[in-house]
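Closing statement on the zinc ion sub-project.
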Amino acid sequence: MPELPEVESTVQYLKERVTGLSIEGATVLWDRTIALTSPHAFCHQLAGSQIADVFRRGKLVGLRIVGKREQYLYTHLRMSGSLDVMAKALPIAPHDRVVIFLSNGKTIRFNDTRKFGRMYLTTSPDDVVAKLGIEPLSPEFTADALRAMLSSKKGAIKPLLLNQSFIAGLGNIYVDESLWRAKIHPLTPANRVPSPKQGALHEAIRAVLSEAVSLLGTDFGDGVVDGGMYTPAVYGQNGQPCGRCGTVIRRVVVGQRGTHLCPSCQRKPRS
Ligand SMILES: [Zn+2]
């Protein structure tokens, strides 16, 4: 599932290819991909507008669209969604859900095998992003900010980091990676993470995400994220030795999510 680095990679890809182009129209091939409006209204409202900018918020790809009025098109890729720019003449692929026709003879194709992805077209971004938490790569996300955010949270640290209204953009891969780097057990109550480890966690989150962004994310060979070169240290590495201490990495379940950790580096908190 695409997380912040993979979404950022999609944003950079689109930014280079579609910024400044006009939208001639759109075709919706799977109605439920379109949230907030009807597929008909979606196509109607896009036609004749222009793509002013491409950006990311959390795990959402955003397009700022100008024309008769300013609109925002957000795409949540969810499990298997991808956005590609390709020639209009190329045939529709089996899992293409939405096609947006551009003024240069190309199209943006939203392909989504599992159909969980959604596109939201709106004039008010708050309809979509109001509940999202802080951006972990923004200047506002400081060690002190994270300390303050953790201080009132009694629940386990891992589910908290996955909560998009707490920090936007983290998912299962990069939470496991960050907790391993900071040597924090995923079940540690958030407000009981010792102060030095809170600082380490802040640094780990930023370092892991920055590295993964520069490497275009993680490619699991499932065709969802092509070309990602980030190699996880613990995520999906169960049975392999920990790169720091050599202990065998284990997979456990935390909050219904498969979780990878080093039992030596990440000691379980005493209850
Ligand atoms: Zn270890």
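The chain has a mean pLDDT of 96. With this model delivered, the sub-project is considered complete and its resources will be redirected to Aim 3.
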